[in-house]
Description:
Oligomer: single chain
Structural class: alpha/beta
Shape: globular
Largest sheet: 8 strands, parallel, barrel
Order of helices and strands: HHHEEEHEEHHEHEHEHEHHEEHEEH
Radius of gyration: 26 Å
Strand content: 5-15%
Amino acid sequence: MSVLCLVVKNSDVMNGYKPRVADLILAGAAFAVTALLSLQAATPDFRLENDVLSRKADRLPPGMRVEFAEASVGVSAEAFSVTERNGGALVSGANRRARLFGLGRLLREPGFRGVSSPEMPVRGVYFATHFGNWYDNAGEREIREYVEDLALWGCNQVRVWFDMHDFRGMDDPNAAPRVARLKAILRAASDCGLETSMLGLANEAFADSPAALRADWRGGQNGYVRELAGHYHVELCPSRPGGLERILAWRAQVLDAFADLRLSQYVIFPYDQGGCTCAGCAPWGTNGMMKIVPDFARLVREKMPGCRVELATWYFDHFGDLGEWKGLFARGADLARHVDGLLVDRLDRIASGTPGGLPASAMSEISMGGMLPWGCFGANPQPRRFAAEVKRGRGLLKGFRPYSEGIYEDLNKVILLQLAWDGGRS
């Protein structure tokens, strides 16, 4: 029930005040405006959903009407329902990404009616934005539509990397365009209601890092039988005096450049690029890097309140029998004090649990795996491989966040995203 109130002072009442018609009209107008503003504030905004629908309308039967509703569906905030409505379909979801997931299902199966919710809560894609690839060169509109298309297939997170070694500092004239491009990608994801994520190498550095503070990458020492792959030779060593301080100071500058975004997650990477093989840092994954992680994680949370911090295990024990995984398990409880989860590349290492009981998701290689020389094979769909990977990950993982170079592997993204939504699909 709506109530219209005209407020008068006690003194006016005592003096025999009687409301005039003009007073009632003014009060009624103010009430109407307030009610209209409240209604507008409470009305869900479906403009993006309708924009995506208009771009994809040719996938539906001619004249089919699609409407959207904001409503909780099932126990998952990402669940959606598609029901019959006025001879067309009503797509309902508690939030924008749930509705986009539902729209995607309807576009692929116009006759679908029912409820669907994801099996795995993590279904992301890492856009490897470097080396002049598609993500580095595509127009902003193309990027935005690509992110929307991924959402239609069930993607709920997009991650990028600001590759520091390309620049001589954040004041390098070439740094601003890269920051702007990464922000455009993350804003496109955020507009779709997806989570936004970044990664950074633990000992990452700018191109003009001081030679006296640089990390060692050579193999044949301190347990490393191979030199570090992909090392830029500008990374910093936290075991050298002043090294850790420089790492954190530069990391703070990078975080400041993105502080206006509400990132959901930040992932700290060990290798490729990154790492140090010196006696003070080896083995890197459980020694040198761990000198950085506590302060790195604290810095992220200070600069980006509410942001989750994860640790990647990429290339652990790859360069020798270093005991990095064993050491990570030994650090379990202490590790869980600093990070909120793990991004793993070896499912066999967590078959019996994770270090510190931390939740884990997998970083799958969908671009180059089994495709050497890379780029010479064209499209590289690998459904059997990823079906087996998801099967192994069920019960162990929160989900998958594949590494994507943005060329030839769109089918692999779709396969992984859909298997993470429903691992029982064939």
